[in-house]
Amino acid sequence: MATKPALVIGVLAGEHSGDLLGAGLMRELRAQHGEVEFIGVGGPLMTAEGLHSLVPMDDLAVMGIAEVVSRLPTLLRHRRHIVNALIERRPDVFIGIDAPDFNLTIAKRLKARGIATMHYVSPSVWAWRQGRIKGIKASVDHVLCLLPFEKAFYDEHDLPATFVGHPLADAIPMHWDQQAARDELKLSAAKRRIALLPGSRSGEIARMGPIFLAAAAEFLRRHPDSEFISPMISAARAQQFRQLQQQLAPDLPLQLIDGQSRTAMAAADGLLLTSGTVTLEAMLIKRPMVVAYRFNWLSYQLIKRMFKAKYFSLPNLLADAPLVPELVQQQVTPDQLADALEQQLDAAQHGQLLDRFTELHRALQRNADAVSAKVALQLAQTTK
């Protein structure tokens, strides 16, 4: 059997969720093609799959307009280095994973040099700043969509796109036993447990951590049989959150868990979390949740004027219905968070909420890694 010629694939992830997607895609690309060289930016998961990251991924993990402005010199310096390295190496295809404001700029420069480009995870162009579609078309040859309603938007604008499903829907089992998760984490079965997930970035924990701790204290006042767990992505974030807890809620029965965020969610009765991919994980694990977020003041003033979608959490966007409570800015108070959490726990007892989560889970199962790799290889091979 003839050996397929080696491919060079550029791949760039700007945060931890992209690192997870990139690692799965890289595994499938190698499985389907054989010898593949990867060049770009990624985190520990992509590095384990053979990527030598051109710059530290954490330097790119900046969220919010005001935060980007403060980090702009570093971001611009990294972008120049990445573009120059990719132009010199000329990959058969460049795949930007999420982080559209950063990745699409790089993709546009590479496409202008005749390099095939893809974007994995559609920007939320259907929700806000819809004029961005012109820039997306100028930057990429194909979009890989994780959500079923996104492909129709690109079809309307004549940009090739494929609904690949979501890798998390493939990876997370349809049923995750709560007691098994508690056993794995060595948690007792008797207590009601609420998981607090205030974010993975230091800025998010600084903004959301105090209010989550206050909400937990209020929930404990109403339900004294409760205990709290909080998975932390790193030792630094765990130390940051523990210091906040010692200052603001020293008597709160809170156990920090090293990583294992999905297992922690599966072990919980209810979740208090920030917006983002974690809401999709929570839905797939099928635990009742309350979604809350506070932006930097300037970021929020700009975003609220441009955001057009009815919802901002992924479960509600997928269902096109208010399945889970969403609280933002001034709505995010201890009382309102505790109220919403009580309502979600009650809704879960009636079963309909979890049944709806199951339906949405099935709709997202498409073997996303394999489908994405196949589309990427087709694009790479048509340009060789």
Automatic annotation (TrEMBL):
GO cellular component: membrane
UniProtKB keywords: Glycosyltransferase, Lipid A biosynthesis, Lipid biosynthesis, Lipid metabolism, Transferase
Entry's EC annotation: 2.4.1.182
Pathway where it operates: Bacterial outer membrane biogenesis; LPS lipid A biosynthesis
Annotated catalysed reactions: a lipid X + a UDP-2-N,3-O-bis[(3R)-3-hydroxyacyl]-alpha-D-glucosamine = a lipid A disaccharide + UDP + H(+)
GO terms, biological process: lipid A biosynthetic process
Molecular function, one GO term: lipid-A-disaccharide synthase activity
Matches recorded under Pfam families: LpxB
HAMAP family per the UniProt record, alphabetical: LpxB
Annotated family: Belongs to the LpxB family.
Function in brief: Condensation of UDP-2,3-diacylglucosamine and 2,3-diacylglucosamine-1-phosphate to form lipid A disaccharide, a precursor of lipid A, a phosphorylated glycolipid that anchors the lipopolysaccharide to the outer membrane of the cell.
Protein name as catalogued: Lipid-A-disaccharide synthase
Gene behind the chain: lpxB
